[in-house]
Prior knowledge:
By secondary structure, this protein is mainly beta. The protein has two domains: 2-177, no CATH class; 184-315. The protein has helices spanning 68-72, 79-83, 89-98, 158-165, 195-200, and strands at residues 2-4, 12-13, 38-39, 41-46, 49-55, 84-86, 106-111, 116-121, 126-131, 146-155, 168-173, 183-185, 189-191, 207-216, 219-228, 231-240, 246-253, 259-261, 277-279, 288-290, 293-295, 301-304, 312-315. The strands form five sheets. A seven-stranded antiparallel beta sheet has the order 2-1-4-5-10-9-6. A six-stranded mixed beta sheet has the order 3-23-22-20-19-12, with no helix packed on it. A hairpin with a 4-residue loop joins strand 7 (106-111) and strand 8 (116-121). The longest helix has 10 residues, at 89-98. It is elongated, with a radius of gyration of 21 Å. This is Oxidoreductase. It comes from Kaistella antarctica.
Amino acid sequence: xxxxxxxxxxxxxxxxxxxxxxxxxxxxxxxxxxxxxxxxxxxxxxxxxxxxxxxxxxxxxxxxxxxxxxxxxxxxxxxxxxxxxxxxxxxxxxxxxxxxxxxxxxxxxxxxxxxxxxxxxxxxxxxxxxxxxxxxxxxxxxxxxxxxxxxxxxxxxxxxxxxxxxxxxxxxxxxxxxxxxxxxxxxxxxxxxxxxxxxxxxxxxxxxxxxxxxxxxxxxxxxxxxxxxxxxxxxxxxxxxxxxxxxxxxxxxxxxxxxxxxxxxxxxxxxxxxxxxxxxxxxxxxxxxxxxxxxxxxxxxxxxxxxxxxxxxxxxxxxx
Length: 320
């Protein structure tokens, strides 16, 4: 299974687990009217087919989310049937109610690289269950081994489905939350330190490495590497306006296990792939920036460049 994930770079990634600890709940917290819930698009291989689907299992954790007969009769079923099945109307309705969605709502999928918005009514989507690929044939299967959600498509042309669903983010609801054609890939260049950059980047016991610069409209982005024993362990981002006032800053860490740095766009990436992005993505929200780290055991988030708005976590059903 491959997850087309907005990790911060939303790059393709495998997500699964052998054992998952889940706190089951019958009801989700009340969703605020102005809240924004985001999801990645996951790709799942089934023999010669590649499915694109959105897992909602990060939010929908009902212990009775799949038919009891699946678990009860698993030893009598083929592993292929266990790996994937459609949810019937009762279980579909239960999932929709828990997510506070209706058949009249839609899913909005925005590919910010291709600047393409896809809108699909929920009543046109299959409700599905996919078994985590880390489950082995012959072992006992439990309810929480399943990724539950909505199938977007299934096809044999893998290249097309990869391109279509990489660099995407999705949201369910009645209105499209995305702004189109205002996201910009960050293309860094290495610059020499100067009096100004030496001033804005604080002193540290770590050794300063490369410093990168990117300019977009009236903003200048600076990214400073910090090293410990030749390894880059910290990156500090500063965004300044035309008067050189700092409008946003953030520090990214490489802990060597759960989180690691993504490639520097324009310098370490190939084939036109961009890791870091900035610009306006959401209606009535400040500009954003993301793509500096990749999460191994969780999901990534999007940072708003206004110092006050909290980051938005992107549900990715990461089962590592």
